[in-house]
Amino acid sequence: MSNNISIIREQRGLSQSELARRIGVTPSTVSRIEGGARKLTQDYLMRFARALNCAPGELVDQPTGNLDRAALIPVVGMCARNAWRVPDLAEPTETIPVIPSQDLAQLDHAAYEVVDDHAAELVGEGGYVITVPVTGIRTKPLHGDWLVIRSREGKMERYSVAKARVDQRGAWVTLDGDDVEVNMDNWNVGIVVATYLPLRRG
C-alpha cells in the first residue's frame, strides 16, 4: 500500500531523522516505510499520525472496494464499569478511521469507546478498542485474549473489556471482582485486535 508520509513530513518541515526521533525508530526505518519497502502496520500508522499531527487516513492512499469501506469502523458502545443502560437499537452514527490488517480486512469490525474500564490498560481513557468476532480468528477464546463482554441484567446491559482465562470448564473473565463464565448472560461480542487513540489537538 502506498503512503503519503514523505509528502506530509516535508510539508511539516521535518527530516527523516527528526521524524524517526519523534517516533522512536531509526531513520532507515522511516525511509523504508516511506518507500514501501517496509509494511506500514497499524502501530506504525498511529505513531506516524501522532508525530505528524494528522489523521491516520491522510497518510495512506486507500484502495477502493471493501477495504476502503472497512476503514471507517462503527462505534457501537462504550466500556465502563457503571454504564448500565437500556440497549440503543439505532444504527451507530459515530465512526473512527482504522486500517484493518490484511488478514482481518474481510471480517466485521466494531469499536468501543474506553471510559473507565480495564481497557484503559490497553489504550487509555478516551481511546477505543477495535474488535472482530472470535469465530473469525479461532473457534473459541484462548487464555490471555482481550475480549469485549456484553453483560445483561433485565432490560439493562453494559460492555466491559476483560482478559480471558481458559480451563477445562470453559472461558472465564473477572468482572467487578468476581470470576464469571463467558456465556449468554456475559456474552463475548468480540476479540480485541487493535486500539485507537485520537490525536489531541490544542
From TrEMBL:
<dbReference type="GO" id="GO:0005829">
    <property type="term" value="C:cytosol"/>
</dbReference>
<feature type="domain" description="HTH cro/C1-type">
    <location>
        <begin position="5"/>
        <end position="59"/>
    </location>
</feature>
<dbReference type="InterPro" id="IPR001387">
    <property type="entry name" value="Cro/C1-type_HTH"/>
</dbReference>
<dbReference type="GO" id="GO:0003700">
    <property type="term" value="F:DNA-binding transcription factor activity"/>
</dbReference>
<dbReference type="InterPro" id="IPR050807">
    <property type="entry name" value="TransReg_Diox_bact_type"/>
</dbReference>
<keyword id="KW-0238">DNA-binding</keyword>
<keyword id="KW-0804">Transcription</keyword>
<dbReference type="InterPro" id="IPR010982">
    <property type="entry name" value="Lambda_DNA-bd_dom_sf"/>
</dbReference>
<dbReference type="Pfam" id="PF01381">
    <property type="entry name" value="HTH_3"/>
</dbReference>
<dbReference type="GO" id="GO:0003677">
    <property type="term" value="F:DNA binding"/>
</dbReference>
<protein>
    <submittedName>
        <fullName>Helix-turn-helix domain-containing protein</fullName>
    </submittedName>
</protein>
<keyword id="KW-0805">Transcription regulation</keyword>
